[in-house]
Amino acid sequence: MTVNDDSFTNWKIREEIAESMIPLIGKLHRERDVTVLLHSRSLVNKSVVSILKTHRFARQIAGAELSVTETMPFLQALTTLDLGPSQIDLGMLATMYKADERGLSVEEFTAEAVAGATGANKIERREPRDVVLYGFGRIGRLVARLLIEKAGSGNGLRLRAIVVRGGGAQDIVKRASLLRRDSIHGQFQGTITVDEEHGTIVANGNAIKVIYADDPTSVDYTEYGIRDAILIDNTGKWRDREGLSRHLRPGIEKVVLTAPGKGDVPNIVHGVNHDTVKPEERILSCASCTTNAIVPPLKAMDDEYGVLRGHVETVHSFTNDQNLLDNYHKSDRRGRSAALNMVITETGAASAVAKALPDLKAKISGSSIRVPVPDVSIAILNLQLARETTREEVHDYLREVSLTSPLKRQIDFITAPDAVSSDFIGSRHASIVDAGALKVDGDNAILYLWYDNEFGYSCQVVRVVQHVSGVEYPTFPATAV
User: Fold this and answer.
1) Which of 58, 279, 429, 446 has the smallest set of CB atoms within 10 Å of its CB?
2) Which position among 114, 176, 208, 289 bears the catalytic label?
3) pTM above the 0.90 mark?
4) pLDDT digits (tens, 9 = 90+) for 267-318
5) Which CATH superfamily is domain 289-453 in?
6) How far is residue 273 from each of residues 126, 357, 407, measured CA to CA in Å?
C-alpha cells in the first residue's frame, strides 16, 4: 500500500468516527443541555469536516494534532453519565488524561473529571430567559444569529423580539433577508421564513416579533408575552444610566449596551470582570470590541509579569459610522471615504481599561487607524513589564493561557506564519495572539492581537448576557485559577 493509500484510508476512518460523533453531541445538547467543546470551540451542529478541522487546529496551539480516535472514547463515556447542564471540553479531557499517571480507564477518568456536573452536583435545567434586541444592525444581527444557534436545546436564552424604527414597504422582509445573507459572515445556518401578517420572523423555529418604535418609552413588552427579559441595546444612542433607563419598561428586567458605557455604567469584559456584576445591577455595558480584545491579554500579562505602562495601536476595519465616499461628518477625518483611505481616529479602549481592570496601575494610552477592510482588526499592544523575560517564555505562557486558563474562551493563539486578517472572520474569541509577530526585548513586549470586531465581540456580548441571565453553565474539566 502506498503512502497516499495510507493517508486516504486514515482519512476515511477519521471521517467515519467524526460522523458517528454528531448524533452523540446533538443528543447531549438537546436532551441534557450539554455543550461539547474542543479546546473551547463548540462541536454542536458542526459537520463532519468541521469536526475534523477543529481537531486539526489543535496542532496550531498545542503543537500536535488531536485525533477523533483520541476524543471519541471520552465522548462515549459522557453519554453514560447522569449529566446536568454544562460545557465539557473533550480536548482538555484528552490532554489531562495523557498527563495522568494513575492508570485509570477513560470511563473512570471522565466520571471523575466531570463529577461537578453529575448526580447530586448537577444543576437543574433552567427555563429560557427572554431576550429583546433594540436595533438590528451589524452587531444586532450577529447577536441574533448566536442566540438562535444557542436555542437548540430549548433552554438558555430565547430571542423574543427585535425593536426597530418603522420602515417602508416590505420592511420585515428586507430585515429578514439581511439576517439570512451577510456579505462578510455568509449564509445563516438554518431556515428563515417571514409571517408578514403577524409581524414575525421565524428562524430555526424561533418566532421573533418585530416591534416598530421610535422611542423606548413607547413600548410595553408584556403586550407581546415578554417577561423579565434582557434587552440588548445595539444602537449606542444612549450610553449613560439615565438614557439607558428608558429601556426599563414593563417586561424588561435588565439592559445590556453593546458600546462603552458612560458615567457609572459598569463596563464588563467577559472572562475578566463579569463576576463583579451585582445581581441587583439592571444596566451594564459590554464595552467596545477593542476593549474586549486588549483587556484579557493585558490581564494575563499583568498577572505573570506585571505591567508598568503600555500603548495600544489598533488597525481597525471601517464601520458604518464612516462615510463610503467623502461627505460631511461631525468628526473631521471620518467624513473621508472609508473604502479608499487609511483614517487616523481616536479610540476609547485605552481609557476603558481602567473600568474593566481597576487593579491595573499602569497607564495605558491608545490610538487607532481605520483601514479599507470590512471586518477583522489588529491591536498592537506595546508593554513595559515589571521584569525582564524572553520571547520563548512569553510565547509559551500565552499559548498555555489560551489552552488551560480561565481566559481560554477570550484568548486564542495561532502559529501559522502566513496568517492574514481574513483568516479570523468568524473567530469566537475576543482576540487571537499572533505568535509569529510576538516581540520581546528584556522588559519590553509587543503583542499583535487579531480580533473579529463584529463576530468575536458579539460572542462576548452573548457570554455576558448568559452570565447575568443565570444560564451560563459551568465548564468541565474545571480550569485551575
Assistant:
1) 279
2) 289
3) yes
4) 999 999 999 999 999 999 999 999 999 999 999 999 999 999 999 999 999 9
5) Dihydrodipicolinate Reductase; domain 2 (3.30.360.10)
6) 24, 7, 11
